[in-house]
Amino acid sequence: MDFTSNYFELFGLPQSYHVDLKLLADRYHGMQREFHPDRYAGKPAQEQRLAVQYAAVINQAYSQLSSPLLRAQYLLSLQNIDDAGDTKITRDPQFLMQQIELREKLADLSDADDAFTALEEVADAVESEYIELQTVFDQQYSQSRLQEAMETVAKMQFFNKLLIEVEQLEHELDDK
Questions:
Q1: Is residue 14 assigned to a domain?
Q2: Which side of the chain, N or C, has fewer Cβ within a 10 Å radius?
């Protein structure tokens, strides 16, 4: 295995935002079996260390490419754009107002008559917007509009965090 390969090359995939997730998973599982450290238990120490390193790279690569947000950030990093991290903040006032409204809806769910239905509506809206942002990023990245793509990744981060909050709230409601 070549440690200098990017994650797309590692899995033999085209460097693109659109990834065949089934093919990625199939190749990941194949490589995971091939380089699993247990298969190298009786081998020399150097081969054992390499197997552990290979497994770590394979796991990291799979994690990055299977997540829409992490994949977008990774693609930008391959273009030497490192501002795609968690510290990037969007300056779009309309978007920020939308975030405030969605967070207020989440905060008010505990007072709703049917909290599960209200949560489902918010979850659907958040998921729909997140998917739309992924489409926008794909178009921007494909057209080498990298500054715009970076802004879209910042927005994706907001929605990714919102989806996590929605999931946590759903668990809290289930526990009641």
A1: yes
A2: C
pLDDT (tens digit, 9 = 90+) per residue, 108-164?
887 778 888 889 999 999 999 999 999 999 999 999 999 999 999 999 999 999 999
Domain range for 158: 93-175
Assess if residue 110 is contained within a domain: yes
111 and 61 housed in the same domain? no
How many helices (H) and strands (E) would you count in the chain? Answer: 7, 0
Instruction: List, for residues 80-104, the tens digit of each pLDDT value.
Output: 987 544 445 677 889 989 989 998 8
Q: What share of the chain is helix, strand, coil (3-state, %, to 5)?
A: 75, 0, 25
CA atoms within 13 A on the CB side of 2: 9
SS3 string of 67-133? CHHHHHHHHHHHCCCCCCCCCCCCCCHHHHHHHHHHHHHHHHHHHCCCHHHHHHHHHHHHHHHHHHH
pTM of the model: 0.86
- On whether the CB atoms of residues 13 and 20 are closer than 8 A, the answer is yes
Contact in structure between 70 and 157 (CB atoms under 8 Å): no
